[in-house]
Specification:
Chain lengths: 295, 489
């Protein structure tokens, strides 16, 4: 770990966020940003009532965001529950869209390590390109950091070639000091991405939390030269907020992270708001939401 | 990754498009006269000087230069208004006028912000979000005191002093006018105000608002000019009180000049604040505080955190983060909403800053500047820091008043307190630590008027501001800010 403890001042973090979010993004920079946001989306459906039909529809949408506008990028990945991985894999066969699966007894992670590892191996065999695991928050809050760290390492091993995103569930970690510590711990243990939330706990991704995680990634990169990715998830449904996050990335981590390989938005309804803004930038008027498919 | 993600063909170097604040709604008076006795009038000698936009060196307007006879006229108007109207007025009525000024400034905040930025070079983000909101906040705050002075000074009667001569600087032009005017008016004094010669325009707009607020003629008189005009105000025999914000050298001249005259005075002068980062601080937030401490308003801040002390164990980390952060500062068009650092206020000031950077290098300091490009026209200076300097270096001892930071390291609390106090100045300071007890220990040991803990450069009208030692005397802001404008009987 680091040679000194990373302390976080919440007031200062919030001030920095306000400052970053006051950037004015207009004209070409806005159009570039909107396209970039689209390419970074992990289009997500994580509900108990998800059906194969719904997943197939989502996969089609992922590759055909708004066919009236050619040259739009596709989203980065589809994020689903383990049982939906084979369906998504097949539906996305001829695209360059990844399949991400949540695993390790998402969202609470309240099961034994063996089952978690078994689940991870299964989704990888089924074709998941990316695995979104949850950390054991109970152990973390009890101070059993080694347990949490070992668990991440073992999951990483079970992932094989698949990329590992580690969900910290920051809404349950509560303090920014905890967020920072959990971020450091996950990166040291082998995370390819660190991710804020499951989307099942409120608050999900908040701007100060994302800032602190980006700063942790920056410090880790400075120390090791390794570039870890970041994924805020939950509650990001508006294009404006997504663009503000791009500003935060640019001014915290630099240009390299403005890339779907290193940054993702976990979101279900963000894509349509971004599409609406893209159409508005081109035509000058907002179209009704009915013109954008809701798959 | 198993598949290569489709990233389309976006630019790989995403940058912000220009987002300039509109100037269409701004009316700058091309020829600004003197504001005396509630009217705009030409100067006796008919002399005008020009004021320019330091970001592009273009002329903005002509401004009347007041000489001795104009100063005399202004003081006479102020005296008459004091004797006949303002000192006799029911305090709650005085308060109403001040509230009115506060509201009118709020209503026209955007206009004031844009003019402040054009005339002075500061980024619109600061004039819009900091300067102008604080201006109206000051008027609101002191308007409230006008009829409550007996609560401010229990058991005493607070009587006004008379005519106040107020001389203000160019770094926060309208804000310094508000700091001076609001308490003086609330306590029943009348005023002759002289803005700095490089930034007269917002004060002239304020004169319009004072007319609009229907303030009795002569209560506030605003006249422009350079040091000569200032001297005529200081030396005028019918002025009862001098309030000055500016350099320590001029402050000393004023003290000499008013000695033995019975004039009261308050001086808010230079500074060389210590900003102290302990190893147990929240480092990323402290880095923001360092940036804000030295680069706010291009470093044209008397309470700037220009001497940085970093505890040795975190020094490499802090300095490396600081250099990274400096790269993300946007230097350029002050009217662009994304600009962090605007133009240096004047050619003279730019030369002074460059002179100090030269001195720092000649004395063996290691200099680092952000790699930002600077516009060709106008006065600009890149954010700069020095390492390998000591308390013996001139850039550590003297006020530069620009975006230049001098960094030293330390090991113990006692050492850093001694060094922080090892300066003729004592205006402000900063302490960064996660440990509450250390905040109290350090802040009570540093002889400075304002100490910020885990933040920097925060201002509020309720909080007194002022210096120890050569940073001045008297306080502005808060209840204490009333004291220099009253005689207690």
């Amino acid at each position: 770990m680091e040679t000194f403890i990373h302390r976080i001042d919440q007031v200062g973090a919030q001030e920095r966020v306000s400052r970053l979010f006051s950037r004015s993004i207009k004209k070409e920079s806005k159009i570039d940003a909107l396209n970039t946001v689209l390419s970074m989306i992990d289009l997500t459906t994580l509900e108990g009532k998800d059906s194969p039909g719904k997943v197939k529809q989502l996969c089609y949408k992922a590759a055909h965001l708004h066919d009236q506008f050619p040259n739009l990028p596709s989203v980065a990945a589809i994020c689903v529950y383990p049982t939906m991985v084979p369906i998504a894999k097949k539906a996305l066969e001829n695209t360059n869209i990844n399949v991400a699966s949540v695993a390790t007894a998402f969202p609470a992670g309240m099961t034994s390590l063996e089952y978690k590892l078994e689940e991870v191996k299964r989704v990888v065999v089924d074709g998941a390109d990316e695995v979104d695991m949850v950390i054991s928050r109970g152990k973390f809050l009890r101070g059993e950091y080694n347990y949490v760290s070992d668990e991440i390492s073992l999951v990483k091993e079970a992932c094989g070639q698949a990329h590992l995103k580690v969900i910290l569930e920051t809404g349950e970690l509560v303090t920014l000091d905890n967020v920072r510590l959990a971020s450091d711990l996950a990166m040291e243990a082998g995370a390819d991405f660190i991710k804020t939330s499951t989307g099942k706990v409120s608050p999900a991704a908040t701007p100060p939390v994302v800032l602190i995680m980006l700063e942790a990634i920056r410090d880790y990169y400075k120390k090791t030269g390794k570039k870890i990715g970041m994924k805020p998830a939950g509650g990001i449904s508006k294009a404006k907020l997504a663009i503000q996050y791009l500003v935060m990335i640019k001014e915290t981590l630099g240009q390299d992270w403005l890339d779907a390989d290193l940054f993702r938005f976990g979101a279900s309804s963000l894509a349509n708001d971004v599409l609406m803004q893209i159409v508005k930038q081109s035509t000058g008027v907002y179209q009704s939401a009915n013109y954008f498919s809701i798959d | 990754m198993n598949k290569k993600i489709n990233k389309s063909d976006f630019k790989t170097d995403w940058s912000y498009s220009p987002a300039p604040e509109s100037t269409d709604h701004i009316k700058i008076v091309k020829k600004n006269d003197l504001f005396i006795n509630g009217k705009f009038m030409p100067p006796e000698k008919g002399k005008y000087f020009k004021t320019i936009n330091p970001a592009n060196e273009q002329k903005l307007a002509d401004v009347a230069e007041a000489d001795k006879s104009d100063v005399d006229k202004a003081v006479k108007a102020a005296r008459k208004a004091y004797d006949k109207v303002w000192s006799k007025m029911d305090p709650s009525e005085r308060g109403k006028y001040i509230y009115r000024i506060a509201r009118l400034i709020q209503e026209r905040a955007r206009e004031f912000s844009v003019i402040e930025t054009m005339d002075g070079g500061k980024p619109i983000r600061e004039s819009r979000d900091i300067d102008i909101p604080l201006v109206s906040a000051h008027f609101f705050y002191y308007a409230g005191w006008a009829d409550k002075l007996s609560y401010a000074f229990p058991g005493k009667q607070a009587k006004p002093i008379g005519v106040a001569g107020q001389i203000i600087p160019w770094n926060f032009p309208l804000l310094m006018a508000a700091w001076k005017l609001a308490p003086a008016l609330a306590t029943g004094n009348t005023v002759v105000l002289k803005p700095a010669e490089t930034t007269p325009l917002t004060a002239m707009k304020l004169a319009e608002i004072i007319q609009e607020a229907d303030l009795p003629p002569g209560v506030v008189n605003i006249i422009n000019g350079d040091g000569k005009t200032g001297r005529a105000i200081v030396e005028h025999e019918d002025i009862n009180k001098i309030a000055f914000t500016g350099s320590t050298d001029v402050g000393k001249m004023i003290m000499k000049s008013v000695a033995g005259t019975g004039k009261k005075y308050t001086l808010e002068l230079g500074g060389k604040a210590a900003n102290i980062i302990f190893e147990d601080a929240a480092i990323d937030q402290a880095v923001e505080g360092i940036i804000d401490g030295i680069f706010f308003n291009q470093g044209h801040v008397c309470c700037a955190g220009s001497r940085l002390f970093v505890q040795e164990s975190v020094a490499d980390t802090v300095i490396s983060k600081l250099k990274d952060r400096m790269e993300s500062l946007i230097v350029g068009d002050p009217l662009d909403k994304n600009t962090d650092i605007g133009a240096i206020n004047s050619k003279m000031q730019l030369e002074k800053i460059k002179m100090y950077v030269d001195i720092g290098q000649k004395e063996g300091g290691s200099v680092h500047q952000s790699s930002c490009g600077l516009p060709e026209k106008g006065y600009w200076h890149a954010p700069t820091l020095f390492t390998d300097v000591s308390q013996s270096h001139r850039i550590v001892q003297e006020e530069i008043f620009g975006p230049v930071l001098a960094i030293q390291t330390f090991r113990t609390v006692d050492e850093v307190i001694a060094k922080a106090n090892n300066t003729p100045f004592g205006l402000s300071g900063g302490v960064w630590t996660d440990k509450g007890s250390k905040i109290f220990q350090v802040s009570k040991s540093i002889r400075a008027g304002v100490l910020w803990a885990n933040t920097f450069n925060k201002f509020d009208p309720t909080s007194p501001f002022g210096g120890y030692k050569e940073s001045g005397m008297g306080r502005e802001g808060g209840l204490e800010g009333l004291m220099p404008y009253v005689n207690l009987v």
